[in-house]
Amino acid sequence: MRRALCLLLAVSPLFAGSIPAAEYKQRRAELRKSLDGVMVLFGAEEPEDLHTSFFQESNFLYLTGWREPGAAMLLTRNEEILFLPAHNRQKEIFNGPITAADDSDANAKSGFASVMPRSAIEPEFLRMAGKSRSIYTLPPDSNAQKLRALMPLHDERNAGTEIARLRVIKSEAEIGRIAESTDITVAAHLAAWKAMKAGLFEYEIAATMTNVYFQHGCERSAYAPIVGSGPNSTILHYMTNHRRADSGELVLMDVGAECSDYATDVTRTVPVDGKFTARQREIYDVVLGAQKAAIAAVKPGARMRGEKNSLQQIAYDYINSHGQDLHGDTLGKYFTHALSHYVGLDVHDPGDVNTPLQPGMVITIEPGVYIPEENIGVRIEDTVLVTPSGAKLLSGALPREASEIEKRIGK
Ligand SMILES: [Mn+2]
Q1: What CATH number does the domain containing 135 carry?
Q2: Rounded distance from Cα 80 to ligand 1 centre (Å)
């Protein structure tokens, strides 16, 4: 299996299938059909500090594929206009050349029939809003709020809700991108398992993992890597990664790559020396049993949460009816977070989590049990595609059985 995966990674070219340009246009067309007013969207601006590079706002990226700072867009049922900042030679010396509305290739590059200078957005907005009653914005975008304030009597609508309705159902191209991020993330976890031994610092383990996906050309971590050893395994979003992992401890690794814009989300919990203690194994198997029960229930029509037979409830019931803490109490109270969320351009992709599952949705299944008193935290998380008949584990190539994990650690 490992050999097969390495081969797969070796032959897949970088950014093999980015999203086809026509798909962005198609997404806008689909969104515009549902609009009953003017949607105002601003892309991300050039970051002012030097900690981060430019990353496009994910709704804007979803609808345009546009990767230059300072863009904006107006959409109605009948019109779409992209607005681009003007050339600024001084800025371009530092940040590289940009595309402006008066460049001859602006339409071809953007896929918009109508591209205007950013300075034209206010009159265009007033013209379009004059013909409608509602304005859609993405709160808390201050640029959009300034435009909105020019039409105070219009109804206020949330652009994010409308766009998320599309974003929850992934296209074939998107599923391919998430699968690629997941394959590379699986390779990252396996590299950490191979290097694992007592005495390593959490940051060394994190570095082993992130190195794998940066070597594959992935642009960033989908979220700050969580590598928690011993007591830190019980802290859900532990990101300090500065403790030494000592003999006899568990190491929880919640680490995922973002490649070609798409995230994945994968967690495994392993024994640092390659052998679970009897107690660690007991808790591990409870969490794995809960994960299997929840995955078995994934199919169109099932719900992540909010009703009696939800995936959340199935996982909770399993955990609460298996095993005990040191005081003879059931374990349900140690499962302290949600079982599932959507995954896509964002690791916590937007969308209604109370809606019935549909084919093409990509979600996590991630039960956990965290017992600080025992320094035992176990989370097992896979990224799962909802299919017409059930679920496909996109991260299924990464072993989950305790016995299989024990065979891989340090080897
Ligand atoms: Mn997650």
Answers
A1: 3.40.350.10
A2: 35
